[in-house]
Q: What sequence folds into this?
């Protein structure tokens, strides 16, 4: 009787082990781990951005390794390598600068380039040039915008980029640059905002590009007041670097726009940062330094 019990116990244990091995093998077929060396059978004739977002079973019954697009999802592929950026020192006829132009251009050239090179693990290198100072044809009140994102007049941000591009036409070939920054000779109080990214347009604005009188096209542009701090530079430059797919920015604001309309200024602006918080530059462009 004792021998029968022992034999029955051994038989049950063997069946349990066999069952575990069977189901474990089935699981691995459906979802290979990240260390799998199974070669991808996804066709490489299309650009990576056009690859399917989910892997399909291959002919041999295995699942190919996921593409980068499938792993990252919605992402930009343009912000890498050397990218040229032109800073246009943009003045108004009725406002006198409070800060030296050299100080502002140095902050952009000495901060933005090294910041994004470090943040991208040396995959993105911004080459920044600075134009001669230009003067816009209209007073600051003509271009002034609301401090609340949801109330910004699209026509005014298009006008300031277009007028600046026309004023700098003799000094700058905008077709030579991937990104354009307008360094305004006005503060947040005078202009309305401390910084914003008009191209790609904010909040669904269909601003894909601006063309100047020589036919040169600006595809990415950011605007900074002369009292802009480093957080603002990082935040709105990120909008430019991400670009846009359809009507959506790839790198959107991660604070709440309705709360920003209610609390547009610091320190109350912190109440709009209900998502990622202070540590993330897309959620917060509060002063870091």
A:
């Amino acid at each position: 009787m004792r021998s029968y019990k022992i034999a029955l116990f051994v038989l049950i244990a063997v069946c349990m082990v066999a069952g575990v091995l069977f189901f474990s093998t089935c699981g691995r077929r459906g979802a290979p781990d990240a260390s799998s060396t199974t070669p991808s059978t996804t066709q490489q004739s299309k650009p990576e951005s056009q690859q399917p977002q989910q892997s399909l079973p291959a002919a041999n019954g295995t699942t190919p390794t996921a593409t980068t697009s499938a792993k990252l999802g919605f992402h930009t592929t343009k912000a890498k390598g050397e990218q040229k950026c032109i800073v246009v020192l943009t003045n108004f006829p009725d406002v006198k600068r409070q800060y030296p132009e050299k100080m502002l251009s140095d902050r952009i050239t000495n901060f933005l380039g090294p910041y994004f090179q470090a943040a991208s693990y040396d995959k993105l290198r911004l080459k920044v040039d600075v134009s001669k100072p230009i003067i816009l044809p209209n007073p600051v009140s003509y271009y002034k915008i609301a401090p609340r994102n949801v109330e910004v007049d699209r026509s005014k941000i298009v006008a300031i980029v277009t007028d600046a591009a026309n004023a700098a036409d003799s000094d700058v070939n905008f077709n030579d640059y991937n990104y354009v920054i307008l360094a305004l000779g006005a503060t947040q109080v005078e202009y309305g905002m401390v910084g914003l990214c008009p191209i790609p347009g904010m909040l669904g604005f269909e601003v894909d590009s601006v063309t100047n009188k020589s036919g040169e096209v600006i595809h990415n542009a950011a605007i900074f007041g002369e009292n802009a701090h480093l957080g603002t530079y990082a935040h709105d430059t990120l909008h430019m670097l991400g670009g846009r797919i359809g009507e959506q920015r790839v790198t959107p604001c991660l604070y709440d726009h309705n709360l920003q309309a209610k609390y547009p200024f610091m320190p109350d602006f912190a109440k709009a940062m209900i998502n990622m918080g202070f540590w993330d530059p897309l959620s917060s462009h509060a002063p870091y330094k």
